[in-house]
Each structure stands twice: as C-alpha cells, then as structure tokens.
Write a structure and sequence with these properties.
It is built from 14 helices and 13 strands. The protein is an alpha/beta fold. Helix 9 links the parallel strand 6 and strand 7. The structure holds pyridoxal-5'-phosphate (PLP). Pyridoxal-5'-phosphate binds next to helix 5.
C-alpha cells in the first residue's frame, strides 16, 4: 500500500449531490434563477481564442474590486471560491494539533479542512433554542487557539454578531495571537460589515464570495481582504493560477454594473419578504436568516416534505440530520417569482 496521510484516512466527506441542473434549486443558497441572460451573453463576447490562450491574471480584477469596496489594491486577493480561501487560511494560520474555534453548526468546510490539515476543531454549540452565548466563544479562546472563525451571518442558522461581540472576540483572540476570520459570504443580503476591522486590528481577515448575491457559484470566485502583511502571506501560499480567467472576467464585468447588483439585492429582499408573509399567513413557524435563506419548520416531518418536494415537483431544499435542525427545511430565497413557485409546491407537499 502507498503511504497516505493519516488525516486523509480519518476524514469522512459528504459531497454535494449531482444532477441538479434539471431541478428547481433551493438547497444550496444559490440564486435559484441566476443572472440576466443578456449580461452573460455580453460577457461571453469577450471570450476569444487569445483570451483562452493566456494564463489568468488577477490584477485588473483586483484593482476594480478593491476600488469597489474602498480598500487598497494590496489589501485583497482572489481565490478559487471561498472553499479555497478556507484551505489557505487554515494552512497558513493554523498549527498542527492546535485549536480552530467555530460555532456549531456552521459552514462545514471549516471542520473538514481542520481534519485534513490535522488542526483541532473546537466547536462552540448553539443553545437548544438556536441562540448563541457569546461568552462560550470567549471561553473557548485560549493559548492553544490559532484561528477563530465567525461566519456573519452564519450558515446555517443565519444569526449575526454585534459590534461589541466581534470586538470582544477579536480582542481576546489578539491576546493569544490568534487570527479571526470573518466570513461574509452572505454580505449584500445583510449589509452590515466588519470590513473596517481589518484595518483596526492586526489579526482580522474578512472574506466575501461571488457565489451568492453575485450569482456566479459556477465561476468559483472568492476574495480575502486584510492588511497588507496578512494578504502577502496568502499570496505566498496560494497556487500561481488559482482563479480562472472566466471567473475574473465575470467578476470584473459585474462590478461594472452596480445597477444590476442593486437589482439583485432588491429582488431577493422582496422575494424573502413575500415568502415570510405567505408562511405567516399559512401558520408556519420559521427562522428568518440574514442570508439568502429561510428555515421553515414544516408541519409534517421535514425529511418527508423534502423528499416529496423532490419526487413530485423536482424541487430541492436542504433537510438536516443534525438534531437541532431536524424539524426544519432550509430554503434559498430569490425573486418573488421564484418564491411563488416554491411556496405553491410547499403548500401542496406539507399537509
Ligand atoms: C458561510 C460560507 N462560507 C463559504 C462558502 C463557500 O463559498 P464559495 O462558493 O465561494 O466556495 C459558503 C458556501 O455556501 C458559505 O455558506
């Protein structure tokens, strides 16, 4: 037998399901409808044989993106989705057998990467009613902590952190020279940001993705934002041509269309409001999140509803094995039109 790293042997992965193209997708916090076709057609006109023959160059995208969010060019780096950014940051700032603190449940790739890299994951659980005690996070940070992760708004659950909470966590982490990653994958659905903290503190990095509001999950484009020194470490560690040219081109072009970005924000906001109202009218309990998703407590078994939605209407939602979330389905939110379709199917399947 060939040698295999023991961390890989110990890691069990659950991969996203395949064959979703022909389905109505409300299961992975994507935009159920995607970007306007005219925009996509327009961008594709720039794909020429020469464009394909050149290795990807990040700089033009980074210049535009850093101007767009109002930071310096030296403060940003693009990655192959936040998926890759998570790997890089844990590789660079994690230490073997030392702690990475996250809340639990949270985005699972944090603990998956901890396992792969041999880092010790320290999950801080929510209370049974899905509230979170910040003191428990503070208590978990100690001399063995190398990284603390705060997903804001968190996925799943959808809760957010206040200024004073983040500041207490960042200050405690700084005391032990630990990095705080603020994962803002759901920024724009929720406009409060802790971006200014990357300049206020030495130990904070913020991450954003183009997969959610910008509706380009297929491109794989994520961004890490931080002080020059921290970003230099990421540059050193990353793969040379990490982000492909299609992602950089689409990323650049959407930044040229602030009107389109505003329309995407407004469309999701209205769709979510519509859905919450209709759920209320139909006596559903739900947990509104600050991201582009809602947790709906189904009237009949959540797993049965999820199966029915798929079998009868080709609608995908996310149901959980996790005890705390077992009674819910998580549903991505999009335009009113997309949500009308979903609600019609839900009301037929959950009675
Ligand atoms: C909180 C959070 N972080 C990171 C990611 C990964 O994003 P990307 O598509 O950029 O890899 C996701 C994806 O769902 C997420 O929910």
């Amino acid at each position: 037998m060939v040698y295999v790293n023991e961390n890989i042997l110990k890691t069990k992965r659950v991969f996203p399901r395949q064959n979703r193209y022909h389905c109505h997708r409300y299961d992975m916090n994507e935009n159920p409808e995607g970007l306007p076709k005219e925009f996509v057609d327009e961008v594709l006109k720039e794909v020429t044989p020469q464009f394909l023959s050149i290795y990807p160059e990040q700089d033009r995208f980074l210049k535009k993106y850093s101007d767009f969010i109002g930071v310096g060019f030296e403060n940003v780096i693009a990655t192959n989705g936040l998926d890759m950014a998570i790997r890089y940051l844990l590789e660079i700032f994690g230490e073997k057998n030392k702690n990475v603190v996250t809340v639990s449940p949270s985005f699972e790739m944090y603990w998956v990467n901890c396992n792969i890299l041999g880092l010790k994951h320290v999950p801080v659980p929510y209370n049974d009613d899905l509230t979170l005690d910040i003191n428990k996070i503070l208590d978990a940070i100690n001399e063995d902590t190398r990284v603390v992760v705060l997903v804001n708004p968190n996925n799943p659950v959808g809760n957010v952190y206040s200024n004073s909470e983040i500041e207490a966590i960042v200050t405690k982490a700084a005391k032990y020279n630990a990095l705080v990653i603020v994962d803002e994958a759901y920024h724009y659905f929720y406009d409060k940001t802790f971006l200014n903290h990357v300049f206020k503190y030495d130990n904070v990095l913020v991450m954003r993705t183009f997969s959610k509001l910008f509706s380009m999950a297929a491109c794989r484009l994520g961004v890490v934002i931080g002080n020059k020194k921290l970003i230099e470490y990421v540059k050193t560690a990353r793969l040379t041509f990490d982000v492909n040219s299609f992602a950089l081109l689409f990323g650049e072009k959407i930044l040229d269309h602030p009107d389109l970005i505003d329309r995407l924000i407004e469309s999701e906001r209205k769709g979510k409001e519509y859905t919450l109202n209709l759920l209320k009218e139909n006596n559903y309990k739900c947990m509104e999140s600050k991201g582009n998703f809602i947790f709906i407590e189904t009237k009949t078994d959540a797993h049965v509803v999820s199966d029915k939605l798929e079998k009868e209407y080709n609608v995908l939602v996310h149901a959980y094995g996790n005890e705390m979330l077992r009674k819910y389905i998580r549903v991505s939110t999009g335009s009113i039109e997309a949500m009308k379709f979903f609600m019609d199917c839900l009301l037929k399947c959950d009675k």
